[in-house]
Automatic annotation (TrEMBL):
Protein name: MTMRA protein
Gene it is expressed from: Mtmr10
Myotubularin phosphatase domain sequence ranges: 1-129
SUPFAM superfamilies registered for this protein in UniProt: (Phosphotyrosine protein) phosphatases II
UniProt family annotation: Belongs to the protein-tyrosine phosphatase family. Non-receptor class myotubularin subfamily.
Signal peptide bounds: none
Top-rank lineage group of the source organism: Eukaryota
């Protein structure tokens, strides 16, 4: 994938040929990417959606099993679909544009209450929270 770094961490139980085969199943060939690690062994792994719904469960299970085996305590994987609970990039960009327009076009001193409600309506603070 042209959008992934040259090197990244993967569980050792996933063979190179499996990774190459699985990469074609992910949108944009974006393989699971180990993003963060906690001293207790917990990790944050980002993963794109799998294109083929028929293969989705098999590939997802194989990758989750490999992640579980790599955890020092063999803890189960907790998955969260961020597409459902976070704004997409277009929503964030639109909120940022609204914020910039508000800061340039609306003088704060005139009507503080109106300005604050306009700020809230941009949703920028909600997204960065």
């Amino acid at each position: 994938s042209p959008s992934l770094p040259e090197y990244f961490v993967v569980p050792s139980s996933l063979a190179d040929q499996d990774l190459k085969l699985y990469s074609y199943s992910f949108i944009g060939r974006r393989m699971p990417l180990w993003s963060w690690n906690h001293p207790n062994g917990s990790a944050l792994v980002r993963m794109a959606n799998i294109k083929d719904v028929l293969q989705q469960r098999r590939i997802d299970q194989r990758i989750c099993n490999a992640i579980t085996r790599s955890h020092p305590l063999r803890s189960d994987v907790y998955k969260s679909d961020l597409d459902k609970c976070l704004p997409n990039i277009q929503e964030i960009q639109a909120a940022h544009i609204k914020l910039k327009q508000l800061c340039v076009n609306e003088p704060f001193e005139e009507t503080e209450e109106k300005w604050l409600s306009s700020l809230e309506n941009t949703r920028w603070l909600e997204y960065i929270r």
